[in-house]
Design goal:
It catalyses: O-phospho-L-serine + H2O = L-serine + phosphate; O-phospho-D-serine + H2O = D-serine + phosphate. The chain is of the alpha/beta class and 227 residues long. The chain is built from 12 helices and 8 strands.
Length: 227
Amino acid sequence: MASLMELKEIFRSADAVCFDVDSTVIREEGIDELAKFCGVGDAVAEMTRRAMGGTVTFKAALTARLGLIRPSYEQVQKLISDNPPQLTPGIRELVSRLHQRGVQVFLVSGGFQSIVEHVALQLNIPTANVFANRLKFYFNGEKYAGFDETQPTAESGGKGRVITHLKEQFHFKKVVMIGDGATDMEACPPGDCFIGFGGNVVRKQVKEKAKWYITHFDELLKELEER
């Protein structure tokens, strides 16, 4: 097991950094915001709480919640325009600094592609570096038609599979995963370093088990400045 000092060295010399999005890069949970916008916020929040108990697979929980929300294409677009995702303080500066150092930055999310791509645009992250779930809509009327179940992020353990794919495709030696949730922590290994983030919400399990836990992105900026 790597020590905290060793984890910091991995972060400072990383080829790539992968960020979770909901409650990490942005302040809110995308699926909860979409549920509220579609008038089923309380019911979906209750379903999320049950899913957090670990008795349901990620895909089953996602299927059930989306089955309740059933968002149309128009509703998703209106959510992004009327209530755009709020960036977490410090993330813009951190991503910019990583880019300056030649580090590849990826957004790896169990959230939705259209919302995550909007976030990527604000952070100058190419959309090719976004891995998220894709909603499907019927062509006639653009009603909800499910989601793309072939995406790795639709499954439990999917974030780890994304990191394995990135290592194989780009031959990265050191990949860091940063996020607030258990699915982020579980991505290391194959990730080389996990940094738990509690700046928006504190997940007890992550706070207790993560060897490196931060509450503000300034802490990571300072690590980069020290080199």
